[in-house]
Amino acid sequence: MTVEYTLFPLCEYAVTIRFSDRIDEAVNDIVHQTAARLQAERKEGIEEIAPAFSSLTVYYDPLVAGSYADVCAWLHENIGRSEQAVRRSVRTVVIPVCYGGEFGPDLPDVARFHGISEDEVVKLHSAGRYRVYMIGFSPGFAYLGGLSPRLATPRRAVPRTKVPAGSVGIAGGQTGVYPLATPGGWQLIGRTPLRLFDPHREEPSLLAAGDIVEFRPIGAREFARLERGT
Questions:
Q1: 186-196 pLDDT, tens per residue?
Q2: CA 92, CA 215: separation in Å to the nearest integer?
Q3: 25: domain CATH number?
Q4: Tens of pLDDT along 38-55?
Q5: Measured torsion, CA atoms of residues 91, 96, 100, 105, in degrees rounded to the nearest 10
Q6: In whole angstroms, what is the distance from residue 115 CA to residue 94 CA?
Q7: Residues 132, 209 contacting (CB under 8 angstroms)
Q8: Whether residue 73 is found in the same domain as residue 175
Q9: 153 has which bridge partners?
Q10: Is the pLDDT of residue 81 over 90?
Q11: What does the alpha-carbon distance between residue 131 and residue 116 come to, in Å, rounded to a whole number?
Q12: Fewer CB under 10 Å: which end of the chain, C or N?
């Protein structure tokens, strides 16, 4: 296959491969296929391959992998090769969410913004299948595509100084889950008891780029039970 791309140095030890300036599933498929290909053909000194919306960045040790020109030569050799595309197996991760109330203080505002009921917001949000386009902002924070246009809502005019870990929010045409307690301006509609990021796990982030996420509504009692881990 023929893949169009541009290489440029992000810094003295990283190369970014840009495939497009737009965000859509077809471009993101190319990003993840390329990441899988490079992972399969990984050369010594390549330290990390980080996919994003429409690009990916390769971090390397110049003392091991060679110069910028050496790494670019390796990339040119492996990007868009004619063999069958290498694909990462796609996981579907179901995330339980308690919507509204203390867990989703902005749910009434989102409902009013769209002129629908809170129950309809929950129904629309939990009916979606969301692609993890990339991990960023904070450790384990997954940017999810696939939000219904009927739920697209602007960020809060005044961000919160602390958003609780596990909060599920909406910002523009995206939805996401805060894995850690951080400042943030997304509209909070619910919260999950799952730990999306745990530095003590073998894989600290519950989600990875390319995963599919589904949200399952739960009540407060189930939230408490899952939070206790029982």
A1: 999 999 999 99
A2: 11
A3: 3.30.1360.40
A4: 998 999 999 999 888 889
A5: -60
A6: 28
A7: yes
A8: no
A9: 172
A10: no
A11: 25
A12: C
| Boundary-marking domain end, from 78, 106, 129 | 78
- Cα–Cα nearest to 146, from 174, 176, 110: 174
Of the candidates 38, 50, 35, 43, the residue with the CA atom closest to the CA atom of residue 66? 43
**Nearest of 25, 52, 70, 190 to residue 60 by alpha carbon:** 70
Structural domain for 105, as ranges:
92-228
Q: Which residues contact 229 (CB under 8 A, 6 or more apart)?
A: none
Whole-structure pTM value: 0.79
> Residue 18: CB partners within 8 Å, gap ≥ 6?
5, 6, 7, 8, 54, 55
Report d(CA 50, CA 152) in Å as an integer.
27
Instruction: Using the 3D structure, point to which of 21, 44, 78 is the last residue of a domain.
Output: 78
| Cα pseudo-dihedral 114, 158, 224, 122, rounded to 10 | 10
- How confident is residue 11, by pLDDT bands cut at 50, 70 and 90? very high
Instruction: Tell me what pLDDT residue 209 has.
Output: 84
Contact 197, 205 (CB under 8 A): yes
Q: What is the DSSP pairing of strand 167-171 with strand 160-163?
A: unpaired
Spatial separation of the C-alpha atoms in residues 17 and 20, rounded to whole Å? 9
Residue with tokens 């939230």: 223
Residues 52 and 117 in one domain: no
Looking at residue 85, the DSSP 8-state letter turns out to be P
CB 99 within 8 A of CB 93: no
CA 226 to chain centre: 23
